[in-house]
Amino acid sequence: MKTALIYSDQYERFDYGPEHPLRMERLGLTWRLMEAYGLTALPPAKLLAPEPADEEAIARFHARQYLEVLKAVSRGLHVSAVHRYGLGPGDNPIFPGLWDVACLIGGGSLLAATVVADGEVERAFHFAGGLHHAMADRASGFCYVNDAVLAILHLRERGLRVCYVDIDAHHGDGVQFAFYRDPNVLTISTHERGDRLFPGTGFVEEHGEGAGHGYSVNLPLEPYTDDEVYAQAFDAVIPPLIAAFKPDVVVAQLGIDSHATDPLTHLAFSVQGFTRAVARIVELSPRLVALGGGGYDLTNVARAWTAAWAVMNGVELQPELPASFAGDLKRFGFRSPSLWDPPVELPAEIRRRAREYAARQVEAIRQSIFPIHGLA
């Protein structure tokens, strides 16, 4: 199995600001944990450093006027009414180098798509990517350029049929709506229900439009959905749809803000549960472009994405974090020296509600989406 890990230490030059929940330092922390486990020196794996995406590639999805605004504010120039483009104090701050880091992340995901499309590797992981909320003409949800859309467009230009699977706690709205009328891209998003969490979309009734009707699939989840409930719902929906759609490649967004201790969301996954979901995606993918995504407890991000990269390479990791990682363990306040989490204990009534809610969503998908794909 040939794989590629895509990373640049240049990502840590950029900063959303000291109060912003998206900390770029999570990327370096993840790299160092992978390195401590020996995962950056696997013989069959390639380590690739991205170049910034050129503006023409980004403009295949994003509006030119929006890109001009991003470039201007990145240089410190005044632009009136930036709020029209989703920019300003709050989720999508303006900071020095904003355009540069957006291009670099876009370039990383395009590189992942390229090496997979060219047959150089079967699986590529760009964990700085997965910024799935950006729209064609505005920033949204900490995302300025939608690198997942750019990767999918590149794969489509190569004539490949693409399934996008998003397991972030937030709905993959920017990707869904980019391909809402396209029957050659099947988008599947599992996420905390939209009436409880940003971006307020991703309801099971969102099916796609026109020729794309039935090619947008949403599996919303009740707060405090745990590993067991999620695994049952995942297996009921995603494997049969992928089997029926027969993609050439899967693009997966592997956000870990679904973790029980994430400060912005309300799901109850463990690192083990997340890793099992990644393993299922790997099994189901003829070829795989894997991206990162959300995750606002840095210790969860590092552990989960390290475990994900191990899965992509068929490597089993020791539970105890390596001794060479002890400095980061202390600096970032890891709760324990283990890769894995203790069991998540939830009240029976909360688990019952989560299970029943998930079962209703699965049944709705079976009734509305499965027949379109020839599934009973």
Supply the number of helical segments.
11
Q: Structural class, from helix and strand content?
A: alpha/beta
Please count the beta strands (DSSP E, at least 2 residues each): 8
* Number of domain modules: 1
Would you give the CATH topology?
A: Arginase, Chain A
- Fraction of residues in H or I helices: 25-40%
Order of helices and strands: EHEHHHEHEHEEHEHEHHH
Architecture in CATH? 3-Layer(aba) Sandwich
Major β-sheet profile: 8 strands, parallel
CATH class category: Alpha Beta
Integer average pLDDT: 97
Indicate the low-confidence ranges by residue numbers.
none
CATH homology superfamily name: Histone deacetylase domain
Distance between the termini: 34 Å
Biggest β-sheet: strands ordered side by side in the sheet: 2-1-3-8-7-4-5-6
CA-atom Rg in angstroms: 19 Å
